[in-house]
Amino acid sequence: MTVQAASTPEVDNPSRLAALDAYGILDTPPEQGFDDIVQLARDACDAPVALVSLVAGNRQWFKARSGFPACQTDLDASVCVHALREPDLLVIPDLTRDPRTRANPLVTGAPHLRFYAGAPLRTPSGQVLGSLCVIDHKPRPEGLSGREARSLRALAGQVMTQLELRRSHAAQKRVLDQREVLLRTQGAVAAADGDLDAILHALVEGVLTATPQAEGAVIEMREGEELVYRATAGTLADKRGLRLPLQGSLAGACLTGGEPLLVPDVHTDPRVVRDLVEVLRLRSCILVPVLRNGEAAGVLKLQSSRPSAFAEADLGSAQVFAGTVSSGLAQAGEAEARREVRKVERRRRAIFDSAHDYAIVVMDLAGKVTDWNRGATKTLGWTAEEMCGKPAAVIFTPEDRAAEIPAKEMHSALTEGRGIDERWHLRKDGSRFWASGEMMALREEDGPPMGFVKILRDRTEHREDVARLQESRDRYRLVTRATNDAIWDWNFATNHVLWNEALTTAYGHALAPSDQTGEWWIAHIHPDDRGRVDASIHAVIDGDGTGWTEEYRFLRADGSYADVLDRGYVIRDAEGRAVRMIGAMFDLTKQREARRALLASEASLRVVLDTVPVGILFAEAPSGRIVGGNRRIEEIFRHPILPSPDAESYGEWVAFHEDGRQVEAAEYPLSRIIRDGVEHARLECEYRRGDGSRVWIEIAGAPMRDPDSNLIGAVVAIADIDARRRAEERQELLNQELSHRMKNILAMVQAIAAQTMRGATDVAAVGEALGNRLIALGKAHDVLLGGAAERAPLAAIVREGVGVQEAASGRVLYSGPEVKIGGKAALSLALMLHELTTNAVKYGALSVPDGRVDLTWRLTEGEADGPSLTVDWRERGGPPVAAPNRKGFGTRLIERGLSAQVGGKLSLTYPSEGVACVVEAPLHNFQAE
Questions:
Q1: CA 624/CA 136 separation, integer angstroms
Q2: Residue numbers in the chain where pLDDT is lower than 50
């Protein structure tokens, strides 16, 4: 998240930045695994915002985010940089109070961030790449709970596990991709049929494809003291034909030195031709010498406009392609030779088609041609007319003629009876062909020699077959060098097993010839696997099958065992006997280590799922089949997860909307995501649990997608919100009750105040009277609220109404049955009793020591309206009483207040012994609300 922060040593640490770059994660598209983790972090910490934040050299970038729109921020406003130096969680309860964050514009302004907690993302080497953080818009003085902190740490570990697996997968994919590109390139080279330009173009395109960080590639060939751009690709595609001096250039240094070069920044290399750097958009590069017949003939160069774009692995890949370039140059030369040979073969084929397989030349003793058959014409090109009378030495090569080979052959024929040779000969067109020949002296019976006959047979094809066989052997040797698989060739006749170099590079074995046997191989199989493997391979060899595959443990030279996958194919002769077996042994160690790491990651994720406080359900697409969930879901539902085979079967989950309707199968979030294609779905409903009880739940879901964004399933989180819903209902009820009571109180207070002050002349007296009346009103409300209901016992109302006057304490005697009356009647009765008591204290029975008041109430049965309630107030032992000359507010309140409220009759009389007041009304009126 953002906050004012300057660049720190932790941010600019080259080792940390290199570690971040090695993961190749920055600016990559969203991935479901990381998105799931931030959602889990958000749920686990009950936070509106969660981020996977990676701190680069000049920014912080979010690999995954939830609740925050921006995908990156500048480093001059980053809170996550503070997590780089933390050994554990960084928790800031209130961002406005922390000196590192209080000036942050996102804290002082929208979106008003207040809380931050981040777990550092630490590599196995100890470098911190960033953090997994949660953020809130309100402060949390208590920080994170222990469970939340553990969840955040565990999820941060899952982020690093995802990064490690992602990097391992990318490395494996890069090796496989490079191997695939190399094989395609070699196929293109072979298909070029010796066309040098096509070969070089295929090679430069191939190496550029195999090295994604390279922007341009070129093969520079030496011509005298210059290097010429012979084949170009990428950003150098338009530079074909460019010439550079051999001396004073990086490519020249590579070629003359005969060593590959990895140049991270050409700006710091003195060997660079400065005026070409900008033209070529060159900043970093790889240069590898290209050999022809063992000598440097050119340079393969890969370049980028970014510094430090290449690693040692890229240099190794370029060297493999440079070897292919060398092979391509050799193939081009060989193709030219084959083209020449094909010319000869066409002539030879014509001779064979006419049944003339031999060239026969007859010569005199001087070596001149005297006869020339059609086979000679077709073999050598001259006609009999052209050759007769001319020296036969013309069919010999200049070097042979210089060495007097024709004369030596004739001498051997004369002295030894024949002269046999096998050498190159010339045709009329000057081309050469390899022939086996025999020269014999022609003699008459027992006479002196009269001449010679030379018989030639074209042996060029045989010689070419030998050359092709050697070429095939060389190609096989190069192919076996280009793979990490241990390739083996088992000759059953000699029991000799030929291995490629991978046996040494991958497994450490450097075999002496005496060790290259089938017994040595079988002996290096793990003892627990040996019998099985030995039996299975001999079952194929001794039977009539051809293919064999086994997995076993193979002993390395260092004493450890490698898990390998071995495949072989049996070669049989015409009778079906096994004569050879060829195969390849692939090391499975890294693959299985990656598999174990993945299983460990899945186990960790299961622990996390079982730790979070919400239920989790997973379903596959497109069927909607439920494939799993965590333990919390069963705790909420109180039954096992239903094995729903498809989205239509979601109807087995019984739940109800707020209006009582049952939730349809298509309304559940899982169905809406999988069947309707929505990105997010949410539902609140009342679920019927396994024990028959009901609980309010909230279901929130999101889709799961593969790396190609195809929908593969959906996940929902299910939270128990029953307590929250019940609390909301209770709060709503209380609010309604409070509103109702406040309206009644305000109306009554307004009426009391208005009547008390009407016609008043003494402010102090008015204040005292109004205060006492409001106290009485308050005490009546205390009685109502104490009962937590809309009704109150009549005895309590009487006690509180009379008790306002201390002088009345103990001298007002009251009795009656237990009766509850409504709130409105209770307030009016309390005010009436307050007025009667006040008048009795001032003027009536309670104004003298011996006076008292009898207050009773009784129920009497009525006919139409049911029981009636009568309240009777009678004063005794006071001064003589007379009716007042004027009625004040108190008298009017007594006469009209309660009786009007309950719709009853009131009698207020003034006999000499004391005031009497009787109120009578139907009980249901007293109890009305």
A1: 34
A2: 1-6, 344-345, 347-355, 751, 784-789
Phi, psi (degrees; rounded to nearest 5) at 921: -160, 160
Under a CB-based contact definition with an 8 Å cutoff, are residues 866 and 924 in contact? yes
Q: Rounded to whole angstroms, how far apart are CA atoms 671 and 879?
A: 88
CA distances to 44, 129, 153, 713, 721 from 49, rounded to whole Å, are 12, 20, 16, 24, 21
Torsional sign, CA 524, 525, 531, 536: negative
Return the DSSP state at 641: P
What order of strands is seen across the sheet that includes strand 694-705? 626-629, 615-620, 711-720, 694-705, 681-688, 655-656
Measured CA to CA, the distance from residue 638 to residue 720 in angstroms comes to: 12
How confident is the model over 209-238, as pLDDT tens digits? 888 888 999 999 988 889 999 999 999 899
Q: Rounded to whole angstroms, how far apart are CA atoms 854 and 815? A: 8
Ramachandran assignment for 92, one of left (phi > 0), alpha (psi -120 to 50 degrees), beta (any other): beta
Angstrom distance (rounded) from CA 379 to CA 461: 13
Q: Are 343 and 381 in contact (CB under 8 A)?
A: no
Q: Output the CA–CA distances (angstroms, integers) from residue 156 to 115, 121, 132, 304, 665, in the order listed.
A: 18, 6, 6, 35, 36
- Please identify which residue in the block is written with the tokens 């001149």: 368
Q: Is 48 helix (H, G, I), strand (E, B) or coil?
A: coil
Q: State the pTM of this model.
A: 0.34
Cβ(597)–Cβ(165) under 8 Å?
Answer: yes
Q: Under a CB-based contact definition with an 8 Å cutoff, are residues 326 and 292 in contact?
A: yes
pLDDT value of residue 786? 47
Q: Are 686 and 589 in contact (CB under 8 A)?
A: no
pLDDT computed for residue 422 by the predictor: 84
Q: How many CB atoms lie within 10 A of CB 204?
A: 29
Alpha-carbon distance 332 to 374, whole Å? 35
Q: Which residues is 822 bridged to in the sheet?
A: 791
Other Cβ atoms less than 10 A from the Cβ of 853: the count is 25
Question: Which pLDDT value is given to residue 663?
Answer: 93
How is residue 778 written in tokens?
């308050």
What pLDDT sits at residue 478?
Answer: 57
CA distances from 642 to 116, 598, 634, 639 (A): 39, 28, 10, 8
Q: What is the predicted pLDDT for the residue at 805?
A: 55
Dihedral angle sign, alpha carbons of residues 171, 173, 174, 176: positive
pLDDT at 3: 40
SS3 830: helix
The answer to whether the Cα torsion of 880, 884, 887, 888 is positive or negative is: negative
Name the H helices within 354-429.
374-380, 384-387, 398-402, 405-416
Instruction: Kindly list the strands in the beta sheet with 226-234, ordered across the sheet, starting from the edge strand earlier in the chain.
Output: 243-245, 226-234, 216-223, 295-304, 284-292, 261-263
Residue 577, CB-side half-sphere exposure with 13 Å CA sphere: 5
| Axis crossing angle, helix 823-842 with helix 794-802, rounded to the nearest 10 | 30
For the stretch 801-817, pLDDT in tens is 776 555 556 788 889 99
Strands 449-458, 432-443: parallel, antiparallel or unpaired by DSSP?
antiparallel
**CA 82/CA 687 separation, integer angstroms:** 45
Residue 655, CB-side half-sphere exposure with 13 Å CA sphere: 23
> Which helix (H) or strand (E) element contains residue 614?
none
- CB of 686 within 8 A of CB of 659? no
Please, are residues 533 and 520 in contact by the beta-carbon 8 Å criterion?
A: no
Pairing of strands 681-688, 694-705: antiparallel
CA distances from 918 to 485, 871, 885 (A): 114, 6, 21
Partner residues linked to 133 by β-bridges: 51, 118
Cα–Cα dist 75/73, whole Å: 7
